[in-house]
Specification:
The chain is mainly alpha-helical. The protein is 75% helix and 0% strand. The protein has one domain. Helix 1 runs antiparallel to helix 2. The termini are far apart.
Length: 65
């Protein structure tokens, strides 16, 4: 029984890790589109918006601190 719980935890951890990589990738791509235009705030906002959009798609309840 304990082995099953450990395996489930590892599967959940792997899925969450993969999803967080996807969130980070979307944020990076969104900000990269504005690279070289001299508007650091717009690039930062694009990354934040993309990250928030992707995090909201995840089937989890949590708080980013």
């Amino acid at each position: 029984m304990t082995d099953l719980i450990v395996k489930e935890d590892k599967i959940i951890e792997r899925i969450l890790s993969t999803e967080l990589v996807r969130v980070t990738e979307r944020a990076a791509v969104s900000s990269a589109r504005l690279r070289g235009r001299g508007d650091e705030k717009a690039a930062d906002q694009a990354a934040v918006d993309a990250m928030r959009r992707e995090l909201n798609r995840l089937p989890i309840h949590g708080r980013v601190v």
